[in-house]
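Predict the 3D structure for this chain.
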Amino acid sequence: MANWFETVTKTLADDKISRRTALRRVGGTVAGVAAASALPGLALAKKNSCAGGGGTCSNPSRFTNCQGNPNTNCYCFTELGGKAVCGCNSYCSQVPTCSSSQKCPKGSVCIVSTGCNCSSSQGVCVPACKKKNKNCQLGSGHGSTAAR
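Done. Predicted structure below.
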């Protein structure tokens, strides 16, 4: 393993190929290694999902932890528009109301039909869970939460 570069150069030297073809092969190998190193991050992003859909007042059993996210405070919610999103459970008394995700703070989503409000047109802003989201904690508060 320590002499991998020497092995590669000998293999290239043994083949009767042009310098241009050799450079293309080396460039392709470097690009392949770079792409392969990015794939684990892409796979993690897909695992941080709500495959069964997000929870709603009429279907509270879908207020489940996001798949693939080790943070137990990341739940599946329904975003305004019906898309399932992974968000941080929050106390209703501590979240602002919203009519769209654009009205929420940066990094937050507008979720509807929650323990805070069963309306499907008026929601609340909760931080979106991304990756491990270590800052996604319920904190201190009282009363009901978005995930009930």
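Residues 115 and 148 are 5 Å apart (CA to CA).
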